[in-house]
Design a protein that fits this description.
five-stranded mixed β-sheet, disordered N terminus, alpha/beta, seven-stranded mixed β-sheet, 9 helices, binds zinc ion
């Protein structure tokens, strides 16, 4: 059984625009995701719940002074990863919305699967990695609470007297990524890891880059990433730069016949090596090869954990 130590500091709640709040959990690494709250006259919109019930409860308590006069009427899950939706049962009275592709993915990766992952024997590197990445969170008491409305494309949502646009930009990080925006602010979900390495569970990288361009077109002053501190378009440009680098560096090594872990080890991360969670390069190389070669089989989740552990501890 894995156990881990929490790296989380005290979450920060920041008003990034009039009545628009970002809830940021340090240090933004595995599982420490962000959320958002848009307050209108008599109701609020919550963007994402958190990885487990304790974290989500703590957030809802912290939001209490805002949601007392303007209760949460609607929740948008930006995507299906548990750190953005496993707390849904604590807001089950609200209307919960996600993309149709995300809703399907939520069914495929229930909390019980993450709980089971922590109990597997993955060898020294795999066990240590799973303990560090997922050990701090509790998955055995979560009741999966799927969205009650799904959509594809783009949808405007009235929150009291304000309008928040939900726009599907996936597949990129996952199959059904959604951004939520209103004038001046974009909540990017995991299209942006600010100061952290992106992880391409779905891809292709080119679709993720298109999502970055879409965020750029919206020209927000404020970018609330899925992980890491609140930023601006520079955080989006940094994601695009990493993905462009991946698209140029992986093909020649794949053509030379190197395996996914060998390509990952061969790559010089340069300045990207300063970002947290560098080991995601293994999954990202795998995704970049899948984009080149339709016959390439993506590695399964368990293999990905083992290979990321090897990269993290042995490189
Ligand atoms: Zn996340």
């Amino acid at each position: 059984m894995s156990t881990g130590v929490s790296r989380a500091g005290e979450p920060e709640l920041t008003e990034v625009a009039d009545g628009v709040h970002a809830y940021v959990q340090p240090d933004g690494s595995w599982g420490y995701s962000n959320a958002g709250l848009v307050c209108a006259a008599e109701q609020s919109l919550l963007i994402d719940t958190l990885f487990d019930l304790d974290l989500t409860r703590r957030m809802l308590d912290r939001l209490g002074p805002l949601t007392g006069p303007a209760p949460i009427g609607t929740v948008v899950n930006t995507h299906a990863n548990g750190d953005h939706c496993y707390g849904n049962q604590l807001v089950a009275d609200a209307h919960i919305v996600a993309s149709a592709a995300s809703a399907r993915e939520m069914d495929e990766v229930p909390p019980a699967l993450l709980h089971a992952l922590k109990g597997l024997d993955l060898g020294d590197d795999g066990d240590r990695f799973v303990a560090e990445a997922f050990g701090p969170f509790r998955f055995d008491d979560i009741e999966p609470t799927p969205p009650d409305e799904t959509f594809s494309g783009s949808l405007e949502l009235a929150v009291g007297d304000r309008v928040v646009t939900r726009e599907e930009v996936g597949p990129a990080h996952t199959a059904g990524d959604v951004i939520a925006h209103l004038p001046g602010v974009v909540f990017t979900g995991d299209i942006v890891f600010h100061g952290g390495t992106p992880v391409i569970w779905a891809g292709p990288p080119s679709a993720w880059r298109a999502a970055c361009r879409r965020i750029g077109e919206l020209a927000p002053a404020v970018v609330v990433p899925g992980h890491g501190p609140v930023g601006d378009l520079a955080a989006v440009e940094a994601m695009d730069a990493y993905l462009a680098w991946l698209e140029s560096e992986v093909p020649p090594r794949h053509e030379a016949g190197l395996s996914v872990p060998d390509i990952a080890r061969d790559l010089d991360l340069g300045a990207f090596g300063d970002w947290s969670d560098r080991e995601r390069i293994v999954v990202n190389v795998d995704a970049a090869i899948a984009a080149l070669d339709p016959a390439h089989q993506r590695m399964d989740a368990v293999t990905a954990m083992v290979e990321m552990g090897r990269y993290r501890y042995r490189r």
